[in-house]
Amino acid sequence: MPTLYGEEHALLPRATGDLCTVINQFTAIVGGKLFYAAGTYTFTDGNVQIRQRKLFSIDLTNSVTAHTTIKSTVYSSIDTPDGFPVNSDAGIGIYTNTTIYFYDPSISNSAIWTYNAETEEFKEVTIADDQNVPEQIYAGGWASDPATGVMYYTGSYRNSQKRKRKRGEEGALEKRAPTRPWMQILDASEGDDKVKWLEGAGRGPTLLYGTLQYVRYGKKGILVGFGGVDPDDHSQFADPNVGSYRDMRDIFVFDIDSQQWFTVQATGGNGSKDIPDGRLSFCSGVSAAPDDSSFQITIYGGYKLSNVAATNRVHVLILPTFQWLDVTPSDQRLGDDRWGRQTGKCAMWNDAQMIVLGGQIQGNNARNNTPVNTGACNATHPPLVVLDTTVFEWTEELNPNRSYSQPKQIYELIGGDWRGLARTREPPGGFDNTALEDIFATTVKRIDQPTAFAATSPTASPSTSATGSPDNGDSEPSGPNVAGVVGGVVGGVLGIALIVGLIWFFFIRKRNPDEEDIPSIPLATGIAPTGRREMMRYEKPELDGTQQPSNGANGEAFDPLKQNSQNGRDAAMELPGDERPAGGIERTPSTGRSVYELDSGETRGELPAR
């Protein structure tokens, strides 16, 4: 098992210089900036692995050099207030379009620290209905829907107040009894001051050190989770207190509208070799095809069970086909080379570039898995690398203007081209129930995050009078208005010239009626007077987020405990421009693998309408 950073580190004044290492930090992109705080830091001329009372940020609207230390001229920092969780190693940064919520599940849930990037203010916000949230002491999965201001956290577990007792030769022994996690929903749709925990959603899968991502499918979106450890499964290790790695084929889907969990079995796009093996402490990011006909969840790094070490592999999960592809770049020199990285944090910029910030870098095999970036600065192991998700290659810098186009590896598998236009929009064996068909038949409308905010106190420009001269109340009285005199003389001369011209037109020119006017030269056909041609551009068609296909022909409700019939099912809606061969696409016979709905517990309350 990997080393988990929970020990206390000395809190020292901020070191100056370039940033070499950051581990277990909060990370989020808000307002065009990459923010990070808490965790531990190493600078070029400071101490190793120290705490920082700072909130750091990098402006992503400018180019950022990757695969090097982060220069002191590239990042900015501001002091955090007293009480801010600088000692946290949870690294959970959930966010809206304007505000980051620094959530540490191991401390009180009645209050949470926020930073509003628009007003540039910290605030400790009291959370309403905090009794709905159990205290959880290990990291699960978290996701944000910035457009609605609703955030999610689930998949961890906590120590139960009840203890199981095991009788042995040495008497009664206490054994930890983990409690299955509740889906925790933080609603900030009414503003930072009215944030509250929502009831409902029930219990979900344990995603200890796994991932959770918001994806724009269904009426209100879905959450997709996978990986990590199941603390209730002890089948993989001799130690009964050690949980088992989750199978990366098990994909958990939470439909926000119905508040139900489903499990879908993923496959390998080109066979089982494309399926990543069990891992924890990896990071992920989401990209959408330009026409929203497919979505991709790209993952990097993590700690692998198979080689008992960190990994440098890159995989992508394609939705809605639920197919894995191994897309590890052939050239790793701009990545982590032959080393692996775990506990890094991923942040996606414009769908096209996945920033990997921080984490522990170490050898990627059991014989050599020693950390190499937790000591002194080492430029060979940079804190920030950037993956171009349009081609799945590491890049030398973040290009702020790069837009997303669907990678060739993906459209060769599901059809279409760089714009999307996916021809396959379901798993190879089809969905095994109509509920999932309905969810993946439509998408929520795309709403891009703001990349900048209006200046809160813009510098006023000098006011001007009607004549355009500066309004200076301290100026001395002026002399005669020379400009006015000259203007009057010029105006009089022009008036006389106008009268003479009219006399010539009516009395002289009209005496020559046989003289023909010279015709004007017509413009060339199809050429605009300006000489500028309109550029062709591709517009992304959008579904309205509410249209739903009809139920299956059998009209039966979904039963999560039995396989539903595949016959008579309506095809999923297609976006315009999806060309199909004559007769449509032949449906692949079902694999017979059932899809089960997880117990969601009690359903209480409703999420706010989008």
Quick structural overview:
The chain is mainly beta.
**What overall form do the CA principal axes indicate?**
globular
Number of strands: 41
Q: How is the CATH topology of the domain at 128-453 named? A: Neuraminidase
Unreliable spans are 1-15, 159-178, 457-487, 505-610
Spatial sequence of strands, sheet with the most strands:
20-21-24-25-41
CATH architecture tag of the domain at 128-453: 6 Propeller
Oligomer: single chain
- Average pLDDT, all residues: 75
Distance from first to last alpha carbon: 42 Å
CA-atom Rg in angstroms:
31 Å
What's the helix count?
A: 3
- Approximately how much beta-strand content do the residues carry? 25-35%
CATH class of the domain at 128-453: Mainly Beta
Features:
Kelch repeat protein, Neuraminidase, Gal_Oxase/kelch_b-propeller, mainly beta, Kelch-typ_b-propeller, 610 residues, 5-stranded mixed β-sheet, 5-stranded antiparallel β-sheet
What does the model show?
This protein starts with 18 loop residues before the first strand and ends in a 12-residue tail after the last strand. Mean pLDDT is 75; it is low at 1-15, 159-178, 457-487 and 505-610. The protein contains three helices and 41 strands. The protein has a domain at 128-453: Neuraminidase (6 Propeller). 40% of the residues are buried. The strands form 13 sheets. A five-stranded antiparallel β-sheet has the order 20-21-24-25-41, with no helix packed on it.
